[in-house]
């Protein structure tokens, strides 16, 4: 009799849906994306996860994008802006601490994009904001985008994540997501530029902190089941995933094959460089210049082949190879727009 009762209790428990909330406790983009991947790997069959997180200033590119085509690399280096590649597709986005990111994770049985979007829209209604789900990827209000969304699927677990522009610095968004005038041919996916807005423009009382609370309430209202708040995974649990997101090869070598051309006039002459790049490595290079200085431009051209398109490595090579300080400064500046 006891044994039968135990079986009934166990079956009943497994039949319940568990609504699990995670709140990130830091702003490191590599750690936050690592946590998302860890939660996908550990999500239970009878669980729906909502994970809320913020990043310090970061440009996040989609899985199939080329950062040279999406970002202003020099500005990002100057201003210490993170660059990171996520595992999902879609376009490039800019995060700061006034942007709130959300993630829904569930096994296919409970993964429901309509419900997930409903959680967001239901939370915003508490502020009198009537958002709309337009197309597949965007949430808008008054035809202006406040949320971009992306999706990924792994085995039997799916993930839906997106941004919520609460009071983000929109001028910085356009500053870093506007690449310089590089001539670049690539088969990667381009970002679609849209008119964007902050939610605070529609209700000045909204903040990241109180929006988190509203999202938890909406999550609880939208799904039947048992709601619980869980502690974030430990740094030790996340370590294997963090390594990948901090790896140059993941961020840049995963970019689609590309041909990059850049030219500029300096006080010492006009300089043009064209490079074919595959897996983040320069496979072909052609340099032309009308400079009269006795500097090893052709040797530079030959030495670039086989090198990774890393700014630090390019800087060392230029400083070791060239003598004229103006040439060094000019080439280093030019490479800032072309390297990661």
UniProtKB/TrEMBL annotation:
BPL/LPL catalytic domain sequence ranges: 44-227
Cited Gene3D superfamilies: Bira Bifunctional Protein, Domain 2 (3.30.930.10), CO dehydrogenase flavoprotein, C-terminal domain (3.30.390.50)
EC number: 6.3.1.20
Record-level GO cellular component terms: cytoplasm
Entry keyword set: ATP-binding, Ligase, Nucleotide-binding
Substrates-to-products reaction catalysed: L-lysyl-[lipoyl-carrier protein] + (R)-lipoate + ATP = N(6)-[(R)-lipoyl]-L-lysyl-[lipoyl-carrier protein] + AMP + diphosphate + H(+)
GO terms for biological process, alphabetical: protein lipoylation
Chain coiled-coil ranges: none
PROSITE patterns on file: BPL_LPL_CATALYTIC
GO molecular function: ATP binding; lipoate-protein ligase activity; lipoyltransferase activity
InterPro entries xrefs: aa-tRNA-synth_II/BPL/LPL, BPL_LPL_catalytic, Lipoate_protein_ligase_C, LipoylTrfase_LipoateP_Ligase
Metabolic or biological pathway, per its Swiss-Prot or TrEMBL entry: Protein modification; protein lipoylation via exogenous pathway; protein N(6)-(lipoyl)lysine from lipoate: step 2/2; Protein modification; protein lipoylation via exogenous pathway; protein N(6)-(lipoyl)lysine from lipoate: step 1/2
Protein name: lipoate--protein ligase
